[in-house]
Amino acid sequence: MQLTQVTVIDGRTAGISGDMLLGALIDAGAEVNAIQDILNLIPNHLPKCTGVKLTATEVKTHGFRSRKAELAIDEKAEETRAGELIQATERIARSGQLSNRAKAFASKAIQILTEVESQLHGSNISSTHLHEAGSADTLADILGTAAACDSLNLFAGDICSGPVAVGGGNITFSHGTLSVPAPAVLEIARQYHIPIVGGPVEVELATPTGVSMLASLVDKFVEVFPRLVPEKVGYGAGTRELTGAPNFLRVIIGSRESQRLDGDAVTVIETNVDDVSGEIIGSSLQRTLEAGAKDAWITAAQFKKNRPGYILHAICDTKDLEKISEVIIKETGTLGVRYQHWDRFVLPRESIVIKLNLEGKVFDVRVKLAKDQAGKLVRIKPEFEDLDSISRATSMPVREVSTLALAEATKSLEKEENGV
What we know:
Alpha-Beta Plaits; Ubiquitin-like (UB roll); 5-stranded mixed sheet; 4-stranded antiparallel sheet; 12 helices; about 35% helix
C-alpha cells in the first residue's frame, strides 16, 4: 500500500500569522537549529538588520499547551522598499540550504505580499515603501517557515487548509483605522480564492504575512477536513490572550492511502416541494442547471398527510452554494433548502472535437473523454446536443449518428496515440 503525506493548516479557530505558523511547525517537530541557520543569513542581505534570534517556548492558552515562536531582531527603524525585500528573500533562499520547493515557496510568498501592497498603494513594486510588512521579521517568518517545512519534508506531500478566521472589530496601523480584515488580507484572499470567516472575537486574527504564506504554501482549500490518519499535531501560539477561544494555529500532519482516482469536494442541496406542478418543477430543474449546478435531478416522494411531491437535488461547487440556493427558492417557492458537503472520487475528464463527414457535409462533434490516473481511456461520450443537431440536419437517427461519432473518435485517438 502506497501512502501520501497530507498536511492540514487549521486557522479556523484563531486565524494565522507568520509566527503562529512557524510555532506550529516547530511544535510538530521541525528542527529549530535548521531554522536558525537560515535566519542567520538575513543580516548578510538586509542592511538594516544586524541580528535575528529564534526561541520557541511552550506556553498555555485557555489551558491548552502550544508553542510560541519569538524572534529577537536587531534592526534600524527605517522603511524598506518592496523591491529590496524581494531581492533579499531570493538571495537568502539561494545561499541557504533550502530545497527547490522551499525556495519557490519563499519567493512566491514575498512576491504575493509585496505585489498586493503595491496594488493597494497604486505604485510599482520597486518604489513601494513597506511599513509593518517591511520589518525583518517578515523575512524571518517566511524563510523560517520554508526551512521548517523542509525539516518536516512537507513539500513531498499535499498541503491543504480550511477557511481562515479573520476576527472582527477595527485595526489601527500606519494608514489609519480600518475594519477587519485588513485591506491586504482581503485582497490576497480575493486573488488566491482563500475562504475566510469572521470572528470568533473582535480583534484582528489573520495578518497579511500569514495569509500570503498560506496562499503560497497550500495546494487546495477545502470546506471539509480531508481524510487522513493523523501522525503529528503542532500548535502555534499567537501573541494575544483571546476571550472565549484559545489563540493558536494547528498544523496536522498525517497520511492517507494514495488515491487511484481524483478526489474533490462538492455541496449537495435539496428541498422538498409538494405544492407545484410538474411544469414548474421541470422549469426549476432547468434554471438550477443554468445557474451553474454540476448536476441536478428530481425524485418523486410522499410527504406528510400523504401528499405526493418532489425532491429537487443539485450538486454544486461550495462557492456557488448561496447563488444556486437562491435560484431554487425563487423558482420553486420553497421556504428553505438543506445542504451538506460531500467528498467524491471522479475520473479526470477532457473534451476534444472531431470531424464527422456525412452526406457530403462535415460536422463538428464535441466528445468527452474520461481517463484514469494512469492515462488509460475509460469512456468516450459524444455530446448529445451535437448528435441531435446532426440528426436533424441529415434525417439520420441519433443512435446511428452516435455510433459513427464513436467510431470516428476512436480512430482519431488511435492515430494520435501512434503519432500519425
